Amino acid sequence: MTRHHPDSLSLMDYSAGNLSEPHALCIRLHLDQCSHCRSRVETLESLGAVMMDQQPKVTVSDTSFDQLLARIDSAPAEPAPVAKTLRLSPLQKLLGDDINELPWKRQLGDVSILDITEKFPGQRERVVLQKLVAGGKAPAHTHRGNETTIVLQGAFADQKGVFNQWDFVVLNEQDEHKPVAVGCEDCITLSVLSAPLKLTGTFTRMLNPFIR
Question: Residue 54 — very low, low, confident or very high, per pLDDT cuts 50/70/90?
Fold first, then answer.
């Protein structure tokens, strides 16, 4: 069951078609397994259709908008279907059927990456797959910009909790963490980065000039 979800504004941008292709892909993968967020998106789309059809146009106050977001966020979560197999349908056209067999490149310690930015032409953000071996630890780091991540396989834990398959997380310059892969399989994530991460460890920080 997914426990970490996109916020209401992200879902609203998704339903309106305002997100970049990589960000929309992350949310689409989450929605495929999260009935709660699918319901929220359907509510937003229905509301948008009603507002577009209303004549004359109705002005919605800032207070009404905030109340709407609060109602959407307070909606009870429904149990998401349990995935019996790894379902990556939106990614299959890009990567094939088995993400474990991709040409991973060892980065640091237990971390391997695969840059797939070129598969999203015209995008300014960097799009990467990251693999953390089962039981492995990623170097302590923060971010120079925003990082949107969805867990595709396995799980990882940091000071904010445990993030399982299909969980969604957004980090920024204020977040510093050291993810650890939990469970018996490698943790694989898809991340969209607006800027390079910044290593904060005593020794690894010397590698920052070489990270893009």
Answer: low
